[in-house]
Design a protein that fits this description.
- By secondary structure, the protein is α/β, with parallel strands linked by helices.
- The protein folds into 3 domains: 77 residues, no CATH class; 193 residues, von Willebrand factor, type A domain (Rossmann fold, 3-Layer(aba) Sandwich), CATH 3.40.50; 128 residues, Jelly Rolls (Sandwich).
- 23% of the residues lie in helices and 29% in strands.
- The strands form 5 sheets. It has a 6-stranded mixed β-sheet, with helices on both faces. A 4-stranded antiparallel β-sheet has the order 10-16-12-13, with no helix packed on it. A 3-stranded antiparallel β-sheet has the order 11-15-14, with helices on one face.
- A hairpin with a 3-residue loop joins strand 14 and strand 15.
- Helix 1 packs antiparallel against helix 2 and helix 1 packs parallel to helix 6.
- The C terminus is likely disordered.
């Protein structure tokens, strides 16, 4: 236990003329550096009268009103870890392009890549695909211990080709079995268990989602099922999925680039809810070449972590500058900050305070992220990223390249 760095050792309380009682606030901070378990400590609070006229004391500190010893205790616990099973549609309709160069299945893979980047290393992920039948690709695996590799292998697997019918119920039973298997492992590190189901069509293979066998398999997960419909209401089994899921998000019909944004954004929102995190702000817009967009958001002393996420189909080519309340620019080279960039997102992951030596200015207060793109900078970055992402750039962004010269669409 210690006094926070942003608190001065002495706090003045101005006594009112009528002699009414005044309240003084004392702030104590706990640095959890001793591992899990209980910790105790004590603080001594002393009160003095400082009287410039000399009635009580000739010098500050001469007249002591009282001394109080206050005992503290706290329990140090781990950050809750989440296990997520992705139950994903691989039916024949996922091969549709809707008149663009990108298929629905490729949109899904792009969103899964962003989900991989957002999940923490000690979280776990598993994956089930379904078409006419279900296929458990891999069980719940901690991302830092093979989970990222499993997801990357699934995204690169050339044999995963959309085909067949839409057996949502089979996929959900397999997903529930996977989560139940993990729950039964003694000492499993996860305390949050959730299933995320995605479909682009109505189910047409039994067992159906409303059937007793599916309901029985999901009985222990009723508050932890999330669903995304890639399509219009009424055509994505939304009636039955809405009844059994915590909530269902539907992309609706729109241009391919906007649907890609919205699908990825829904994954981000659901992962935040699964991990029991709040979304502070969620604006969207178009980033015009040469102009800067400043997006402000508030963090509080109670916030321990923060992820600042920029979603864009050309994220590496955007300058995303994060600024702390004290005006310091935050980057991934700092001790409490990591920064990750992929083709679809830029992520700042903060442990607060972000600047250990500047607690007052890098924790609570008004933060902002400044988004900017100019032609000269893009040309420099193109040399760095074009070869690395050439296949994805050719596949995903050909249909919107007419917009990329002067406008970048972004999500924050």
């Amino acid at each position: 236990f210690q006094v926070p760095d942003f608190i001065t050792p002495y706090q003045a309380i101005i006594q009112s003329q009528d002699g009414a009682l005044q309240t003084g606030e004392v702030f104590i901070k706990l640095n959890a550096t001793t591992g899990l378990g209980s910790i105790s400590g004590m603080a001594t609070i002393e009160a003095f009268i400082e009287d410039s006229e000399g009635y009580y004391a000739a010098a500050p500190g001469d007249f002591q009103v009282g001394t109080w010893n206050v005992n503290f205790s706290a329990d140090i616990v781990e950050r809750p870890k989440s296990a997520v099973c992705f139950v994903l549609d691989k039916s024949g309709s996922m091969d549709a392009t809707d008149g663009t160069a990108i298929t629905r299945f490729e949109m899904l893979e792009n969103a899964i890549g962003t989900a991989r980047d957002i999940l923490r290393g000690d979280d776990g992920a598993g994956m089930v695909y379904y078409d006419t039948n279900e296929n458990r690709l891999f069980d719940i695996t901690q991302l830092s211990n093979g989970g990222v590799t499993n997801i990357n292998n699934a995204l690169a697997d050339p044999t995963l080709i959309p085909d067949g019918w839409t057996a949502i119920g089979k996929g959900m039973i397999e997903g529930a079995d996977m989560l139940t298997d993990e729950m039964a492992i003694p000492g499993t590190p996860y305390s949050n268990f959730a299933m995320l189901v995605l479909t682009d069509g109505n189910e047409n293979i039994a067992p159906f989602v409303s059937s007793p066998s599916v309901n029985s398999a999901l009985s222990g997960l009723t508050n932890d099922i999330y669903a995304i419909g890639l399509g219009q209401q009424g055509s994505v089994s939304d009636a039955v999925l809405s009844n059994i899921s915590k909530y269902m998000l539907i992309t609706g019909e729109m241009q391919a680039d906007e649907r890609l944004f919205r699908l990825t954004k829904y994954f981000v929102q659901i992962l935040a809810d699964i991990s029991k995190n709040d979304i502070v702000v969620d604006p969207s817009g178009r980033l015009v070449m040469g102009l800067k967009h400043e997006i402000e958001f508030e963090l509080t002393e109670a916030d321990l972590y923060a992820d600042v996420i920029t979603l864009s189909p050309l994220a590496p080519f955007i300058n995303a500058v994060l600024v702390a309340p004290n005006g310091d620019v935050i980057n991934g080279a700092l001790g409490n900050v990591t920064q990750h960039t992929s083709l679809g997102s830029q992520i700042y992951r903060l442990a607060l305070p972000a600047l250990p030596g500047k607690e007052k200015g890098s924790h609570a207060g008004k933060w902002k992220i400044i988004l900017h793109a100019d032609r000269e900078d893009i040309e420099k970055k193109w040399k760095k990223y074009a070869e690395k992402y050439k296949d994805l750039l050719r596949k995903f962004y050909h249909p919107v390249q007419r917009n990329c010269a002067n406008v970048f669409r972004f999500k924050f």
